[in-house]
Amino acid sequence: MTQQSPIGNNARARSLEPVWLRKLPAYSFSLPKLYIVSVVTSLRVQKKKTRLPQKRILRPIFLLLACCWLSLEGAHPAATTQPQPCLAPLQWEGRTVQYDHTTGRNVRASVTYDAVNRRIRVLEEKKGLVPCKKFFEYIYLYQDAVMFQIEQVTKLCSKLALTEEWDPYDIPDNSTYEDQHYIGGPGDQISVQEWSDRKPARKYETWVGVYTVKDCYPVLETYTRNYSVTTATRFFDLQLGISDPSVFTPPSSCQTAMPSKMEYGC
């Protein structure tokens, strides 16, 4: 018995392919394509045994196979898109806990955030009774490059120049996508994305932000400065909008404000 040449078999199978199938992109889905070719070949062989017109037999099958092929093409890894930074709310009220890794101190506060006018008001919460410990209110007015520090009991006020640029609670456009995961457990969880300022030329991140997938609320922001000073801020109980814009107006005691920052101790 004479063995048939594989090349001849391939050419014969190729000739049985419809024109539209030959023009499909040659992605990594070679196995599904071979399956489609085998189905088409089988159908044409069966057609020779019947008297029905070829179009009536093959046209619906071709359409079905084309849909299957396109769905496989859409599932190709190259077709997946990289997540893009979401737009965080511009105005909100909520609570935060900021941990300073240098001092080991947690600061709990109520925060009013206004990115439209570039201003933030931070009111430290009184948690526990610590002798000589002072609690402050801070008003950051970045458009005026000034910060007010008000002692909550005596209303003593300090007025200081803001040397740092406005840094909103959001995800910069040039951020690097790190991960997406869930916070919580089954039946009680939210989906969040993690972003950073990591770049190929820099070994460490100086900023890492975690934001909710839905509505883009901040959950956690971590800053590292000079590879040693690290602060981590957690956000919770956020509400959209600003209920009382007057919180950004310094009290009358700030008209005679001191030029130096007040300390937390006695």
Describe the structure.
With 266 residues, this protein is an alpha+beta fold. 21% of the residues lie in helices and 33% in strands. The protein has helices at residues 6-16, 19-22, 30-48, 54-74; strands spanning 91-100, 105-114, 119-124, 136-141, 146-151, 157-161, 176-185, 188-196, 207-212, 218-225, 229-240. An eleven-stranded antiparallel β-sheet has the order 6-5-4-3-2-1-11-10-9-8-7, with no helix packed on it. A hairpin with a 5-residue loop joins strand 5 and strand 6. The longest helix has 21 residues, at 54-74. The protein is elongated, with a radius of gyration of 32 Å. The N and C termini lie far apart (105 Å). 11% of the residues are buried.
What's the short version?
With 266 residues, the protein is α+β, with helices and mostly antiparallel strands. It is built from 4 helices and 11 strands, in the order H-H-H-H-E-E-E-E-E-E-E-E-E-E-E.
Give short descriptive properties of this protein:
single chain; 266 residues; alpha+beta; eleven-stranded antiparallel β-sheet; disordered N terminus
